[in-house]
């Protein structure tokens, strides 16, 4: 009888401390994704506040378990309509309208997480590694980071101005605020 009570007690303890997995969606009024490109004559940034970002996390710890982000290529605004229209042509946005990131592995770090996942852009999916800084505010999980991509990795023709092409590399920056409860 005593071993049965011990087993029941251990089972209850494990059940009590089992983490609860929750889902949260980014608050777009407090979140953004941007890209930064460089041409020998100038540089620019395009921003989007129209995207879907969803995380799964452990309630209580805020540990990230999965991340999925989908952004429309057309949602990025560089404050230059002509440039934005050309970007849609260069990225074949009619045929490939979305940029999608899905995490495959998440390793917690001291200040956030190292996240490996697949980024799909211009009809090509490639693995990427992200270092994400994560902050736990009361009622919010905030994730920020910066990473670099190459246009050639996604078979995107580099735009040009005065017969000079932009740099092949470009920077992605993100700030995402996930209300949690």
- What overall geometry do the principal axes of the alpha carbons give? elongated
Which range best describes the helical content: under 10%, 10-25%, 25-40%, 40-55%, 55-70% or over 70%?
10-25%
Strand content: over 45%
Task: Give start-end ranges of low-pLDDT stretches.
Answer: none
Instruction: Write down how many β-strands occur, each being a DSSP E stretch of 2 or more residues.
Output: 12
What would you report as the Rg, rounded to the nearest angstrom?
21 Å
What labels would you give this structure?
single chain, mainly beta, Lipocalin, two-stranded antiparallel ribbon
Describe the structure.
This protein has a single domain, classed as Lipid/polyisoprenoid-binding, YceI-like (Lipocalin), CATH 2.40.128.110. Helix content is 14%, strand content 55%. It is built from two helices and twelve strands. The strands form two sheets. A ten-stranded antiparallel β-sheet has the order 1-4-5-6-7-8-9-12-2-3, with no helix packed on it. The chain has a two-stranded antiparallel ribbon with strand order 10-11. The two termini are 41 Å apart. The mean pLDDT is 87.
